Amino acid sequence: MTERHTHDGAVKTGLLVLVVGPSGVGKDTLLDAARERLKGAAHICFPRRCITRPAGSVGEVHIPVRAEDFGQMARQGAFLLSWKAHDLCYGIPRHVQDDVAEGKTVIVNVSRSVIDDARSLIGHDQVRILSIRASREVLRKRLESRGREDALDIERRLARASAYQVDGNNIVHVDNDADLETGIARFIAAIEIDQAIANRA
Ligand SMILES: Nc1ncnc2c1ncn2[C@@H]1O[C@H](COP(=O)(O)OP(=O)(O)O)[C@@H](O)[C@H]1O
Ligand SMILES: O=P(O)(O)OC[C@H]1O[C@H](OP(=O)(O)OP(=O)(O)O)[C@H](O)[C@@H]1O
Q: Among 2.70.70.10, 3.40.1170.10, 3.40.50.300, 3.40.1190.20, what is the CATH number of 11-47+98-200?
């Protein structure tokens, strides 16, 4: 277990917080709000993801990577975690492992399919899962309102919603089925619970 001692002697245990949930549930929106509201917490970081999605697309600010370069980057060890979804490739930069080892809390949006990989790489006790939930009807409305995908891609994303079950330990479910401010408050509260647990570690 890696720890970092702050100026007041408090012990900060490194954490990798994985934000997961079906497409359209609100992961990126909640992360953007948390990034803004927690920007004063120096030990909490929200790294950008490498995605083969064109720069400037609707939604998250990501690190654009050309599809023809992604495979080589992965083979060269550029990513701690990587996966394919929605005809895109996603990578979490390798430095995240060092950030956690230095005692930081790192919060990232990942596929449900890589949760066990993260637990194996980082250690079960240092991985927390924030599982964002909303009904299928809400998912459809949000994907349509987002306007980033066409009708076929929306149907494919909705079909994928039930493709994975989130199980194991250190999971906090966050229901994002109400108004946005309520969802943000619940999300921030879940992060603060993780911080309290880490401080007691
Ligand atoms: N609680 C909420 N209430 C209303 N709209 C929301 C809420 N959470 C997210 N949204 C909207 O739903 C859409 C999908 O959110 P997004 O963060 O892109 O989801 P994900 O990253 O999980 O695919 C966006 O247009 C976003 O503004
Ligand atoms: O494997 P799953 O758990 O179904 O997740 C599929 C993908 O959706 C999310 O990405 P992204 O946020 O770019 O897509 P979204 O905004 O449509 O959720 C997540 O980071 C995965 O890359």
A: 3.40.50.300
- Biggest CA-to-CA distance, the chain: 54
Cβ atoms < 10 Å from Cβ of 177 = 15
Position of tokens 């990798």?
A: 16
**Ligand closest to CA 58:** 1
What are residue 174's DSSP bridge partners?
132
Q: Give the residue whose CA is nearest to atom 6 of ligand 2.
A: 111
Please tell me the pTM assigned to this model.
0.93
| Interval between CA 75 and ligand 1 midpoint (Å) | 33
Question: Is residue 104 classed exposed, middle or buried when 0-12, 13-18 and 19+ CB atoms within 10 A define those classes?
Answer: buried
* Residue with CA at minimum distance from ligand 2 atom 1: 111
Q: pLDDT digits over 155-165, tens only?
A: 999 999 999 99
Instruction: Say if strands 3-5 and 50-51 run parallel, antiparallel, or are unpaired.
Output: unpaired
Residues with CB under 6 A from ligand 2: 20, 22-24, 27-28, 59, 85, 90, 109-113, 157, 160, 163-164
Structure confidence at residue 170 (pLDDT):
95
CA-proximal residue: ligand 1, atom 14 (nearest): 24
pLDDT, tens digit, 9 for 90 and up, residues 48-107: 999 999 888 877 889 999 999 999 999 999 999 999 998 999 999 999 999 999 999 999
Give the pLDDT band of residue 10 (cuts 50, 70, 90). low
